[in-house]
């Protein structure tokens, strides 16, 4: 059977045209010609029905959920105080936005996700139409808001508080990042006999890691921070709803210093040294509570 | 462009398409947890390259980065068991081994396929040879056009069409056999 409609005449060629028809890739004339062929041939009609059914089934498959935490993590990439720019952080001029608590950031992220999260499934039925939807303006507006909030970085906080130490700024942004991450810890364990060997295996050094759960400060795990290009161990404690990051930088000189208050802008930070390590404790707790933690840690770590 | 403007552009270009990016990465890596790592890597690359983004389809632009990142990631993390990209010489053999011929019944088969359960369909997609799976996912899950897929994979549109037809043929016969 030959046709005079400009379509290919081999079975393989016409099959490709049917796929293209289902995918909305044919112009009106070609689409019409293919439809005529389908109408005239039950085999082609069955093929067409099969492709439509298959495409429908595939496009109805559940899609991976974009979690709030993951979205916030990606949003954080776009802001100037993220990991890739850590080296520039210390010299970067402060940005002109008010500082904010991490809780606020998480709240904004959650709100955005609920709006934006509904879009893909609503838009699913017509892949053709989706192709022309480039932006979700509500999501965009919300994300601009997030970026404005996030742009107020540890840099500004450190500038304000007069701390000119890049290490303190890096500790602060590490803590802030950990609050945004899916999990603030790499090794989840309340057992210091797990956390210490893990840190040892990773970077060859591990600080004292007393479990202060009886005092209300539970060791929940550890992670590795990269500060000034060097991996340093960080312990994570929890006190009620607050997380405390304790970064322990191995010390060369072996100086011992008393706890020094570097708090500002909603975060509390205390720095001290015990000869083997230089410690930086940071949290969004009130200062007296952090002091209490520091005192108990120092007592237990001796 | 100021840093602030770049940050805003990143947010408007990348954030709305995270679901698509995760879906693609999941099908390329075969695993949801790896997909998050891959998409995060891809977004860092997208952020670094955002100044060079010339407009156009933001989703296709991001998905191209996600695809490339997936393969880099798999080469690093799973050097074994990965089909080299571009090594498509034996695709015909692979397709032949699966058998593309369909049972000759007409009507009922389409409704069987339409009712195929999620798990069976996902397993069938996962079992497709990678180049076929990739093309199918880009078209039927991510909704890209033939032209966009052709640009992304750097293959002619005709190749996109035949891979798509092969992929769907394999799926249909797999589902037809299972049911």
From TrEMBL, chain A:
Region (Disordered): 77-129
Domain of life: Bacteria
Protein name per its UniProtKB record: Anti-sigma factor
Species for this entry: Mesorhizobium huakuii
TrEMBL record, chain B:
Gene3D superfamilies documented for this protein: 1.10.1740.10, Winged helix-like DNA-binding domain superfamily/Winged helix DNA-binding domain
Alphabetically ordered keywords of this record: Sigma factor, Transcription, Transcription regulation
Domain spans labelled RNA polymerase sigma factor 70 region 4 type: 120-168
Family membership noted in the UniProt record: Belongs to the sigma-70 factor family. ECF subfamily.
Boundaries of every RNA polymerase sigma-70 region domain copy: 16-78
Protein name: Sigma-70 family RNA polymerase sigma factor
GO-annotated molecular function: DNA binding; sigma factor activity
NCBIfam families in the cross-refs: sigma70-ECF
Top-level taxonomic group: Bacteria
Pfam families associated with the record: Sigma70_r2 (PF04542), Sigma70_r4_2 (PF08281)
Originating species: Mesorhizobium huakuii
Gene Ontology BP term (one): DNA-templated transcription initiation
């Amino acid at each position: 059977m030959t046709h005079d409609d400009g379509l290919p005449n081999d079975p393989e060629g016409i099959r490709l045209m049917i796929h293209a028809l289902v995918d909305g890739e044919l112009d009106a004339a070609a689409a019409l010609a293919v439809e005529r062929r389908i109408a005239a041939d039950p085999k082609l009609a069955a093929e067409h029905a099969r492709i439509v059914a298959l495409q429908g089934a595939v496009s109805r498959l559940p899609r991976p959920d974009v979690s709030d935490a993951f979205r916030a993590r990606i949003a954080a990439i776009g802001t100037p105080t993220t990991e890739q720019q850590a080296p520039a952080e210390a010299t970067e001029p402060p940005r002109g936005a008010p500082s904010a608590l991490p809780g606020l950031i998480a709240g904004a992220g959650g709100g955005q996700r609920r709006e934006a999260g509904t879009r893909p499934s609503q838009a699913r039925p017509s892949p053709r139409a989706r192709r022309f939807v480039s932006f979700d303006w509500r999501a965009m507006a919300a994300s601009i808001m997030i970026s404005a909030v996030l742009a107020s970085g540890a840099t500004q906080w450190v500038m304000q508080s007069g701390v000119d130490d890049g290490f303190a700024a890096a500790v602060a942004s590490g803590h802030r990042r950990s609050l945004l991450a899916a999990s603030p810890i790499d090794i989840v364990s309340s057992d210091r006999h797990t956390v210490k060997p893990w840190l040892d295996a990773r970077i060859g050094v591990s600080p004292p890691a007393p479990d202060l759960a009886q005092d209300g400060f539970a060791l929940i795990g550890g992670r590795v921070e990269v500060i000034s290009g060097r991996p340093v161990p960080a312990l994570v404690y929890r006190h009620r709803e607050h997380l405390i990051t304790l970064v322990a930088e191995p010390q060369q000189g072996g100086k011992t210093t008393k706890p020094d208050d570097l708090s500002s802008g909603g975060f509390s930070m205390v720095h001290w040294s015990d000869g083997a390590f230089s410690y930086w404790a940071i949290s969004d707790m009130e200062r007296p509570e952090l002091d209490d933690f520091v005192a108990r840690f120092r007592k237990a770590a001796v | 462009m100021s840093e602030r403007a770049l940050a805003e552009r990143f947010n408007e270009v990348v954030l709305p398409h995270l679901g698509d990016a995760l879906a693609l990465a999941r099908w390329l890596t075969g695993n949801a947890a790896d997909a998050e790592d891959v998409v995060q890597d891809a977004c860092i690359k997208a952020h670094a390259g955002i100044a060079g983004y010339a407009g156009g389809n933001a989703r296709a632009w991001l998905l191209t980065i996600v695809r490339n990142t997936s393969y880099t990631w798999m080469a690093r993390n799973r050097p074994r068991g990965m089909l080299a990209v571009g090594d498509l010489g034996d695709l015909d053999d692979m397709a032949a081994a699966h058998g593309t011929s369909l049972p000759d019944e007409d009507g009922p088969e389409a409704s069987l396929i339409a009712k195929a359960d999620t798990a069976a369909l996902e397993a069938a997609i996962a079992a497709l040879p990678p180049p076929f799976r990739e093309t199918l996912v880009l078209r039927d899950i991510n909704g890209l056009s033939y032209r966009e897929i052709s640009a992304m994979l750097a293959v002619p549109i005709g190749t996109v069409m035949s891979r798509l037809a092969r992929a769907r043929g394999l799926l249909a016969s797999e589902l037809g056999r299972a049911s």
